[in-house]
Structure formats: structure tokens, C-alpha cells
What we know:
Elements: E1 2-7, E2 13-16, H1 31-34, E3 39-44, H2 59-70
Amino acid sequence: MEVHEFGKENNRKVVLIPGNMMCWRQFENVIPLLEKDYHVIAFSTDGYDGTGETTFTTAEASAEKLEGYIQ
């Protein structure tokens, strides 16, 4: 899993979770708009994070990693 953070460091947060196991880069056009007022957190799941170092296993495993990060 890859996590990218943008924008202001504050309590107003927006979490961007791509659908269909896609890369966080699908949000590249909206991040500049959101980061003016929010702390933006964008995720990519394993196998789709652009590092080439992870492998997608199951949707459940990806959801558990995401849940652990958010908690």
C-alpha cells in the first residue's frame, strides 16, 4: 500500500480511496483543488501503487491494511 499526503496539516482531512484497485494518481486533477483547504490523504493498494514492490493478493487484505492505517 502506498500513501501520499498533500495540503495543509490540520484537522480538516479528505481521504481519497481509489475504486477498482487503481492508483492514487487517478485523483491528480482534484488534489490541487482540495489541498488548498484540506489535508489530503490518497491511497494506492498493493500491486497498483507504482512502486513495483508490492503484489495484490485479495481485496480483504487491502481493506485490512487501509483500515489499520486509518485507525
